[in-house]
Design goal:
Elements (H helix, E strand, L loop, with lengths): L1 E7 L5 E8 L2 E2 L4 E12 L11 E13 L5 E12 L1 H9 L5 E11 L2
Antiparallel strand pairs: 1-2, 2-4, 3-4, 4-5, 5-6, 6-7
């Protein structure tokens, strides 16, 4: 699945996010899901602490167990990284420019 998202600010700046996921069926109920996400901005914004161009990315892997089609707990790991002027803003705020995180949650469909 590829999910493009487009945002337009009051000042006319355009921001975009592209998310891609792919389900790899390991068994009837166990699914491995690689994920990738990239964010882009048409212009720099000090207010939102974003640079122009590629602002950040997230790459991850989730392992999901489908109890049924509508309920599936998951665990995973992601790597996030900021780029360009966005990284400069993060560095000025004392934030990390890249980091690994552990994720866990429940996928729930209504």
């Amino acid at each position: 699945d590829i999910e493009p998202t487009l945002f337009v600010t009051d000042s006319g700046a355009i921001l975009g996010r592209f998310t891609g996921v792919y389900d790899i069926q390991l068994s009837q109920r166990l699914i491995l899901q690689p994920r990738v996400e990239f964010s882009l901005s048409s212009e720099s914004s000090e207010e939102f602490k974003r640079g122009s161009g590629l602002t950040d990315s997230e790459i991850g892997l989730r392992l999901r167990y489908e109890i049924n089609r509508k309920l599936a707990p998951y665990i995973g790991v992601t790597f996030e990284k900021a780029y360009g002027r966005t990284a400069d803003y993060a560095e000025l705020d004392g934030d990390r420019l890249s980091e690994w995180t552990f994720v866990t949650g429940i996928r729930w469909w209504l």
